[in-house]
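Q: I'm building a small set of examples for a reading group on sequence design. Run inverse folding on the following structure and report the sequence directly after it, with nothing in between.
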């Protein structure tokens, strides 16, 4: 059976600069990359933590706020209190570096600049106190969409690819299914499992429709990487396959989805984990399985073999972004990724 084709860099990479990300990934993974992220370096290394600046202190949750608000007072948050997200401005800076290295031949022609954007709920759950989430969500979403629109005006469509990262969305889904008991992720709109799924799907579809049809779009379906552990272990790929099918099918009349990424834990080499891929119906959308783990080429090959028994054509990736991976493990991850894949196909 052919090897998987191509490597997806999920997002964050623990290098010091964007230039280092572009240079080292292109050197380590020749002909394996269809798009390259900037590595979410510096203040962006921990997913959406850097979005604290977008919210007034009065609505921030206890993890990040700098004072203890009066519990008897309610802050009337308006759009004027929500600052620009800056996803457009940081991408513009990285894109200039991308173009410079491409002109020098470091980045191959045809490889796209990949911008990773969070689902809105991932930001809201990370930063906003639960009593303000319902009020603040549409306000932040409006600011976010404004910056997404500007982003697409700054970077030419022929150079751009966008990935939407869904992390805390899956924490909320697993809470609603009774598989995750952390009340922090209790849905703030309804606790019925079906309605929670549809609400989250609707949120993500609304964002996806803001992406120009000529800009490739992918989704990173995520179970987190806090202390190199998931917030809860996926029981199998069932919920992930359900979300993938729903996204592709719901968006079918509006735009294509170019790729879907799903995590595969190190210890899951059992067929039961991969069996739900039999029900994956995503047409021409490329599947990337996050089954590459540092120091585990043998296990990576075993996971590939088990997955190919139910879904033959896919590329590979790590489970999540590598931003919190020990830097000493990165070269090994790149080497395994290269050795277990064929060059990317169009």
């Amino acid at each position: 059976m052919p090897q998987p084709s191509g490597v997806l860099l999920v997002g964050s990479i623990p290098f010091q600069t964007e230039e280092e990300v572009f240079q080292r990934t292109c050197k380590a993974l020749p002909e394996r990359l269809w798009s390259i992220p900037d590595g979410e370096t510096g203040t962006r290394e921990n997913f959406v933590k850097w979005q604290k600046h977008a919210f007034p202190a009065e609505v921030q949750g206890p993890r990040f706020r700098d004072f203890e608000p009066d519990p008897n007072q309610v802050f009337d948050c308006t759009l004027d209190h929500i600052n620009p997200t800056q996803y457009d401005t940081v991408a513009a800076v990285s894109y200039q570096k991308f173009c410079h290295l491409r002109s020098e031949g470091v980045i191959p022609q045809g490889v796209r600049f990949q911008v990773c954007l969070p689902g809105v709920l991932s930001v809201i759950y990370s930063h906003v106190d639960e009593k303000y989430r319902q009020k603040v969500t549409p306000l932040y979403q409006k600011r976010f969409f404004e910056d997404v629109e500007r982003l697409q005006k700054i970077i030419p469509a022929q150079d751009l690819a966008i990935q939407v990262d869904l992390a805390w969305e899956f924490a909320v889904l697993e809470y609603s299914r009774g598989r995750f008991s952390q009340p922090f992720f209790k849905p703030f709109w309804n606790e019925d499992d079906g309605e929670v799924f549809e609400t989250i799907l609707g949120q993500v579809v609304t964002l996806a429709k803001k992406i120009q049809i000529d800009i490739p779009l992918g989704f990173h379906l995520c179970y987190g990487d806090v202390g190199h552990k998931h917030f809860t272990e996926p029981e199998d790929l069932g919920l992930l396959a359900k979300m993938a099918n729903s996204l592709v099918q719901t968006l079918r009349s509006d735009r294509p989805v170019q790729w879907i990424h799903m995590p595969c834990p190190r210890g899951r080499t059992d067929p039961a984990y991969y069996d739900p891929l039999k029900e994956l119906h995503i047409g021409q959308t490329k599947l990337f399985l996050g089954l590459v783990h540092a120091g585990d080429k043998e296990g990576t090959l075993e996971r590939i073999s088990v997955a190919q028994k139910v879904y033959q054509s896919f590329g590979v990736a790590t489970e999540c972004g590598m931003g919190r991976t020990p830097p000493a493990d990165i070269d090994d991850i790149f080497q395994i990724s290269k050795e277990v894949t064929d060059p990317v196909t169009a």
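The chain is about 35% helix and 10% strand.
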